[in-house]
Design goal:
This protein has two domains: 33 residues; 114 residues, no CATH class. The N terminus is likely disordered. By secondary structure, the chain is α+β, with helices and mostly antiparallel strands. The protein has a five-stranded antiparallel β-sheet with strand order 1-10-9-8-6, covered by helices on one side. The longest helix has 38 residues. Helices cover 29% and strands 24% of the residues. It has three helices and ten strands; from the N terminus they run H-H-E-E-E-E-E-E-H-E-E-E-E. This is Serine/threonine protein kinase.
Protein backbone atom coordinates (compact mmCIF):
# COMPACT_ATOMS: atom_id res chain seq x y z
CA UNK A 1 0.00 0.00 0.00
CA UNK A 2 1.38 3.32 -0.91
CA UNK A 3 2.19 6.05 1.68
CA UNK A 4 1.65 9.66 0.79
CA UNK A 5 4.67 11.81 1.86
CA UNK A 6 3.88 15.11 0.24
CA UNK A 7 1.61 16.35 2.90
CA UNK A 8 3.95 15.54 5.73
CA UNK A 9 6.86 17.65 4.46
CA UNK A 10 9.24 14.72 4.48
CA UNK A 11 12.08 14.98 2.01
CA UNK A 12 11.45 12.46 -0.62
CA UNK A 13 15.10 12.28 -1.38
CA UNK A 14 15.78 10.19 1.66
CA UNK A 15 19.29 9.63 2.97
CA UNK A 16 21.00 10.69 -0.25
CA UNK A 17 19.37 14.10 -0.17
CA UNK A 18 20.44 14.61 3.45
CA UNK A 19 23.99 13.67 2.58
CA UNK A 20 24.03 16.24 -0.19
CA UNK A 21 23.03 18.99 2.19
CA UNK A 22 25.79 18.04 4.62
CA UNK A 23 28.38 18.16 1.87
CA UNK A 24 27.10 21.58 0.80
CA UNK A 25 27.36 22.88 4.34
CA UNK A 26 30.88 21.40 4.66
CA UNK A 27 32.03 23.19 1.53
CA UNK A 28 30.67 26.46 2.87
CA UNK A 29 32.47 25.93 6.21
CA UNK A 30 35.76 25.14 4.48
CA UNK A 31 35.34 28.21 2.31
CA UNK A 32 34.78 30.37 5.41
CA UNK A 33 37.82 28.91 7.13
CA UNK A 34 39.92 29.48 4.03
CA UNK A 35 38.76 33.07 3.85
CA UNK A 36 39.62 33.53 7.52
CA UNK A 37 43.10 32.06 7.07
CA UNK A 38 43.64 34.25 4.03
CA UNK A 39 42.63 37.29 6.08
CA UNK A 40 44.91 36.31 8.96
CA UNK A 41 47.78 35.81 6.56
CA UNK A 42 47.16 39.24 5.10
CA UNK A 43 47.05 40.75 8.59
CA UNK A 44 50.30 38.98 9.50
CA UNK A 45 52.08 40.41 6.46
CA UNK A 46 50.82 43.89 7.25
CA UNK A 47 52.01 43.68 10.86
CA UNK A 48 55.43 42.48 9.75
CA UNK A 49 55.71 45.40 7.39
CA UNK A 50 54.79 47.82 10.15
CA UNK A 51 57.06 46.27 12.77
CA UNK A 52 60.12 47.99 11.30
CA UNK A 53 62.36 44.95 11.82
CA UNK A 54 63.43 45.11 8.17
CA UNK A 55 63.43 48.91 7.99
CA UNK A 56 66.60 50.98 7.78
CA UNK A 57 67.99 52.06 11.20
CA UNK A 58 67.22 55.66 12.10
CA UNK A 59 69.87 58.21 11.17
CA UNK A 60 71.60 59.49 14.36
CA UNK A 61 70.92 63.10 15.09
CA UNK A 62 74.08 65.19 14.72
CA UNK A 63 75.46 66.67 17.91
CA UNK A 64 75.41 70.43 18.22
CA UNK A 65 79.06 70.48 19.33
CA UNK A 66 81.83 67.97 18.84
CA UNK A 67 83.38 66.57 22.05
CA UNK A 68 86.46 68.49 23.10
CA UNK A 69 85.86 71.39 20.70
CA UNK A 70 84.94 73.85 23.44
CA UNK A 71 88.00 72.86 25.51
CA UNK A 72 90.31 73.22 22.50
CA UNK A 73 88.89 76.65 21.71
CA UNK A 74 89.26 77.65 25.35
CA UNK A 75 92.91 76.49 25.38
CA UNK A 76 93.58 78.38 22.14
CA UNK A 77 91.97 81.55 23.54
CA UNK A 78 93.95 81.33 26.78
CA UNK A 79 97.19 80.69 24.90
CA UNK A 80 96.65 83.73 22.65
CA UNK A 81 95.74 85.91 25.68
CA UNK A 82 98.89 85.07 27.65
CA UNK A 83 101.64 87.73 27.70
CA UNK A 84 104.93 86.96 25.94
CA UNK A 85 107.42 84.95 27.93
CA UNK A 86 109.88 87.00 29.98
CA UNK A 87 112.72 84.89 28.58
CA UNK A 88 111.93 86.20 25.09
CA UNK A 89 112.26 89.83 26.32
CA UNK A 90 115.65 89.63 27.97
CA UNK A 91 119.12 88.16 27.55
CA UNK A 92 121.32 86.98 30.40
CA UNK A 93 124.97 85.97 30.44
CA UNK A 94 128.28 85.77 32.21
CA UNK A 95 131.54 87.13 30.79
CA UNK A 96 135.14 87.48 31.92
CA UNK A 97 137.06 90.53 30.69
CA UNK A 98 140.76 91.28 30.73
CA UNK A 99 142.44 94.65 30.24
CA UNK A 100 141.31 96.23 26.96
CA UNK A 101 138.43 93.78 26.32
CA UNK A 102 135.12 94.91 24.88
CA UNK A 103 131.75 93.14 25.09
CA UNK A 104 128.58 93.28 23.05
CA UNK A 105 125.95 92.38 25.64
CA UNK A 106 123.16 91.53 23.16
CA UNK A 107 125.44 89.31 21.08
CA UNK A 108 127.65 88.10 23.96
CA UNK A 109 130.78 88.78 21.94
CA UNK A 110 134.05 89.51 23.73
CA UNK A 111 137.30 90.71 22.20
CA UNK A 112 139.62 93.62 21.59
CA UNK A 113 137.70 95.07 18.65
CA UNK A 114 134.01 94.09 18.89
CA UNK A 115 131.50 95.82 16.61
CA UNK A 116 128.63 97.45 18.50
CA UNK A 117 130.43 96.88 21.79
CA UNK A 118 128.54 98.15 24.82
CA UNK A 119 131.23 98.06 27.49
CA UNK A 120 135.02 98.22 27.73
CA UNK A 121 137.23 97.16 30.62
CA UNK A 122 140.32 98.98 31.76
CA UNK A 123 142.37 96.67 34.00
CA UNK A 124 144.90 99.35 34.98
CA UNK A 125 144.44 100.63 38.50
CA UNK A 126 141.89 101.95 39.24
CA UNK A 127 139.96 99.48 37.15
CA UNK A 128 137.07 100.96 35.20
CA UNK A 129 134.02 99.88 33.19
CA UNK A 130 133.49 102.29 30.31
CA UNK A 131 130.10 102.26 28.49
CA UNK A 132 130.15 102.99 24.77
CA UNK A 133 126.89 104.94 25.15
CA UNK A 134 128.56 107.14 27.78
CA UNK A 135 125.71 106.45 30.24
CA UNK A 136 126.20 104.29 33.34
CA UNK A 137 125.11 104.61 36.97
CA UNK A 138 125.11 102.67 40.22
CA UNK A 139 122.09 100.80 41.59
CA UNK A 140 122.07 99.42 45.11
CA UNK A 141 118.94 97.22 45.14
CA UNK A 142 116.17 95.94 42.89
CA UNK A 143 118.08 95.88 39.60
CA UNK A 144 114.98 95.55 37.40
CA UNK A 145 114.34 97.13 34.03
CA UNK A 146 111.98 99.69 35.54
CA UNK A 147 114.33 100.61 38.38
CA UNK A 148 117.28 100.92 36.02
CA UNK A 149 115.24 103.13 33.73
CA UNK A 150 114.50 105.46 36.64
CA UNK A 151 118.15 105.52 37.77
CA UNK A 152 119.34 106.34 34.25
CA UNK A 153 116.97 109.32 34.17
CA UNK A 154 118.87 110.71 37.18
CA UNK A 155 122.59 111.20 37.71
CA UNK A 156 124.79 109.18 35.34
CA UNK A 157 128.53 108.76 34.74
CA UNK A 158 130.80 108.19 31.78
CA UNK A 159 132.60 105.32 33.60
CA UNK A 160 132.29 103.30 36.81
CA UNK A 161 134.93 102.06 39.22
CA UNK A 162 135.14 98.26 39.54
CA UNK A 163 134.59 96.83 42.99
CA UNK A 164 133.30 93.46 44.23
CA UNK A 165 129.53 93.29 44.75
CA UNK A 166 128.71 96.45 42.80
CA UNK A 167 125.85 96.56 40.30
CA UNK A 168 125.44 99.09 37.51
CA UNK A 169 122.74 100.14 35.09
CA UNK A 170 123.63 101.31 31.59
CA UNK A 171 122.28 101.84 28.10
CA UNK A 172 123.61 99.73 25.26
CA UNK A 173 124.52 101.22 21.89
CA UNK A 174 121.30 99.68 20.55
CA UNK A 175 119.37 101.71 23.14
CA UNK A 176 118.43 98.83 25.46
CA UNK A 177 118.61 98.97 29.24
CA UNK A 178 121.07 96.58 30.88
CA UNK A 179 122.36 95.77 34.33
CA UNK A 180 125.89 94.54 35.06
CA UNK A 181 126.91 92.96 38.37
CA UNK A 182 130.53 92.42 39.35
CA UNK A 183 130.90 88.80 40.48
CA UNK A 184 134.65 88.74 41.08
CA UNK A 185 137.29 91.41 40.77
CA UNK A 186 140.69 92.40 42.19
CA UNK A 187 140.77 96.17 41.83
CA UNK A 188 144.37 96.46 43.11
CA UNK A 189 145.95 94.21 40.50
CA UNK A 190 145.93 93.96 36.73
CA UNK A 191 143.49 91.03 36.91
CA UNK A 192 140.40 89.99 34.94
CA UNK A 193 136.91 90.83 36.10
CA UNK A 194 133.93 88.48 36.06
CA UNK A 195 130.56 90.01 35.22
CA UNK A 196 126.95 88.82 35.20
CA UNK A 197 124.55 90.85 33.05
CA UNK A 198 120.93 91.15 31.91
CA UNK A 199 119.73 93.08 28.86
CA UNK A 200 116.04 93.95 28.47
CA UNK A 201 115.03 93.99 24.80
Amino acid sequence: MGIATEGWGIDAGGPEASSGKSEGQGHKWLAAVGALLTGLAAVGITVKGCSGSDADPPTPRPSATQPGTAAQQSDTTQASAQPPSTAALEKRGDVTLTDGDQVDLEGKQVGKDVPNNDLSFSGVFPQQLIPSSGVITYIYSGATAENCRKELEGKTYSNATVDNGRTFCLRTVEGHIATVAIVKANPHENAPVQLKYTVWL
